[in-house]
Backbone:
């Protein structure tokens, strides 16, 4: 196991992504942050906090929520049924908003495909953008990220784990080799 | 878990995971597009040998919201009236590729029989068998009670529920007694001695013959339908006497706690076990029970059918 991103790197990456999101969208007024549970949801909250600080507005003015994509997965039949996670759409909704999807690890792209399907049932956003903490490559679908914390070249035998203090008690991104699993 | 035949198929963890899943699915009912692609391409058969309004429609709505194909079968107007056996009916459905069979039957144990047979490869879900069980009704009742009185994600610890009326013929009462007590609620059955089943002392409940003395202490009162179609004997002298002692009316409603809710699995005999005034009052959650039924049945269908059958999952 090796640490690919220590806490300080994660914090810097999130701050940079917050700035990039604001730059791309011209402020925080029309953006809606949607984290994909579980860790994406926590990252979304941190980004919202960061954006609120940068823009010097109260956190309550930043539209942030969660989007569970379980029911839209394409591998449901290959796995045991999963428990559903909460979907919380901010009061402003997604209609006509710039929706930023937030996930921890960007891998095959299938999660994001499912998220796009789930969004499509709720309305028509002005645009959908994707922010991820780690892009480990190996895409299986033509999907790319708009904001990336760190590009992490990996082999398919490795596994990338994001640990966040809200869940795991520590902030770090680690790479595990199959032999260690 | 492949089938849902009885509350005894569940433990507390599984029951709570069904309720939690239903809570998330209930939010989808508020979305502009109420359909999910989850069970696309799966075939679900509603096999109803007994009349039903809300259970059949509820299962059908739940299956359709998950994009499953639904085939409705009712014994009336089918070859059952020509004498076709359950086995032949089941094998016909199997040949048509049913992934799940939702069965209601007047014989207690019919769903178990179907599940244990080799006739059907898919899941069997009990939608009410004779006077035995109706597990999805109990789950939706627990969901409703939890939403109003419990913490929305916890169990029913500390709550007191009275189930009143025709316990003897009620599969709803049996499933609810098992489930609500499993979730930590105290259950009191209130009925005339003639309408209590043999062996009720082995149930995890208290029994009372005095409705008025129980009412001030309960958080939810669940009225049961007097099932006249199952009554071959005289269980009480007159309907009027039954109403007098065991019916819910304005006077009794005034004895209830302010926060207590009124439930009924439907269909109601208005004027017999419950007055219209009580059924339509602000503390009645009877219509909401129906809405919750769709979410709970979606959760059951999702958890039983969506995943790979051989894998370990939430309900294992």
Residues:
């Amino acid at each position: 196991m090796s640490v690919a991103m220590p806490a300080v790197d994660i914090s810097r990456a999130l701050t940079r992504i917050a700035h990039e999101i604001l730059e791309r969208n011209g402020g925080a007024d029309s953006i809606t942050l949607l984290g994909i549970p579980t860790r994406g949801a926590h990252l979304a909250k941190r980004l919202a906090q960061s954006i609120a600080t940068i823009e010097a507005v109260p956190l309550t003015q930043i539209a942030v929520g969660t989007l569970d994509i379980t029911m839209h997965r394409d591998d449901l039949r290959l796995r045991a049924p999963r428990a559903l996670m909460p979907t919380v759409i901010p009061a402003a909704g997604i209609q006509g908003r710039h929706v930023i999807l937030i996930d921890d690890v960007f891998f095959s792209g299938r999660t994001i495909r499912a998220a796009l399907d789930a969004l499509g049932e709720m309305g028509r956003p002005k645009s959908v953008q994707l922010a991820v903490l780690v892009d480990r490559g190996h895409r299986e679908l033509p999907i790319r990220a708009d904001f990336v914390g760190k590009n992490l070249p990996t082999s398919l035998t490795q596994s990338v784990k994001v640990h966040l203090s809200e869940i795991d008690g520590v902030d770090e991104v680690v790479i595990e080799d199959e032999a260690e699993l | 878990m492949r089938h849902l035949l009885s509350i005894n198929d569940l433990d507390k963890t599984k029951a709570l995971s069904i309720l939690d899943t239903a809570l998330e699915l209930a939010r989808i009912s508020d979305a502009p597009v109420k359909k999910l692609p989850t069970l696309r391409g799966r075939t679900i058969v509603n096999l109803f040998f007994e009349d039903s309004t809300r259970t059949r429609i509820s299962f059908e709505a739940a299956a359709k919201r998950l994009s499953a194909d639904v085939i409705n079968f009712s014994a009336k107007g089918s070859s059952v009236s020509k004498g076709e056996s359950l086995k032949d009916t089941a094998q016909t459905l199997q040949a048509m590729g049913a992934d799940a069979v939702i069965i209601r039957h007047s014989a207690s144990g019919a769903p178990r029989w179907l599940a244990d047979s080799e006739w059907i490869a898919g899941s069997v879900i009990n939608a009410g068998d004779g006077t035995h069980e109706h597990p999805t009704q109990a789950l939706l009742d627990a969901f409703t009670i939890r939403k109003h009185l419990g913490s929305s994600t916890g169990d029913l610890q500390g709550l007191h529920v009275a189930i009143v009326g025709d316990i003897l013929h009620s599969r709803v009462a049996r499933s609810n007694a098992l489930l609500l007590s499993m979730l930590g609620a105290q259950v009191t059955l209130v009925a005339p001695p003639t309408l209590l089943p043999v062996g009720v002392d082995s149930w995890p409940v208290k029994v009372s013959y005095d409705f008025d003395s129980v009412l001030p202490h309960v958080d939810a009162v669940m009225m049961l339908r007097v099932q006249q179609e199952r009554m071959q004997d005289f269980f009480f002298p007159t309907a009027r006497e039954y109403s007098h002692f065991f019916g819910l009316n304005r006077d009794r409603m005034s004895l209830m706690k302010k926060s207590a809710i009124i439930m009924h699995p439907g269909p109601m005999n208005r004027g017999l076990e419950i007055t219209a005034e009580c059924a339509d009052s602000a503390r009645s959650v009877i219509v909401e029970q129906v809405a919750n039924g769709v979410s709970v049945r979606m959760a059951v269908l999702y958890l039983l059918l969506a995943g790979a059958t051989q894998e370990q999952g939430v309900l294992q």
Observations:
- The mean pLDDT of chain B is 91.
- Residues 270 and 276 of chain B are 6 Å apart (CA to CA).
- Chain B touches chain A through 27 residues (CB under 8 Å).
- Strands of chain B lie at 43-48, 69-74, 100-105, 123-129, 160-164, 186-190, 206-208, 220-223, 261-263.
